[in-house]
Write a structure and sequence with these properties.
- With 173 residues, this protein is mainly beta.
- The chain is built from 1 helix and 8 strands.
- The longest helix has 11 residues.
- 18% of the residues are buried.
């Protein structure tokens, strides 16, 4: 394993020692961008990972909480957004790799990079918004709306314009 991989943890003190447990905190800038969608964690964004490593008969159980910040743009108004990301995971790194196990202990180390990347990317919103009631952009002018869309009267549907003259003032007709 590369010594430069910040996700790499030595577990030689836990290997084949069921019942042993260690806690560690990793803090480092994200080496690469996490996610490719409307929200992503930029390379260089601080990552903090609180890790608990437990020795088991089958391998090392890793339980972690990841904290970072995602950035992107609001899908309604296109303003930049910054979103806190807090995600946790639990994964078994087996001593002997086989088809039933996704991750393995290699050279008395566990590499958290694929697990952290998957957990963070899957927690990112598909369509981030700057606020839940963001009114978005005016479809006619493209300008940012000042108030929520429900406060504005709906624009008349041009397909019904020819029927405007057929309105009656008598209810039920």
């Amino acid at each position: 394993m590369s010594a430069r991989n910040p996700y790499d943890l030595a577990v030689h003190d836990l290997v084949h020692r069921p019942g042993e447990m260690r806690e560690r905190t990793l803090s480092f800038p994200a080496p690469e961008q996490l996610g490719e969608g409307a929200a992503h964690v930029d390379a260089g964004t601080p990552l903090e990972i609180d890790v608990r490593l437990e020795g088991l008969h089958e391998g090392i159980l890793v339980t972690a909480d990841v904290h970072t910040t995602a950035s992107g743009e609001c899908v309604r108004c296109l303003d930049p957004v910054s979103l806190p990301v807090e995600v946790d995971f639990q994964e078994l790194f087996a001593y002997s790799p086989d088809e039933a196990v996704d991750f393995a202990v290699r050279d008395d180390h566990v590499d958290l990079e694929p697990v952290v990347r998957d957990a963070v990317v899957l927690s990112l919103p598909f369509q981030p918004v700057c606020r839940p009631d963001c009114p978005g952009l005016d479809p006619a002018t493209g300008e940012k709306l000042a108030s929520p869309a429900e406060d504005q009267p709906p624009a008349p549907d041009p397909r019904w314009a020819a029927l405007e003259g057929f309105r009656t003032d008598h209810p039920g007709e």
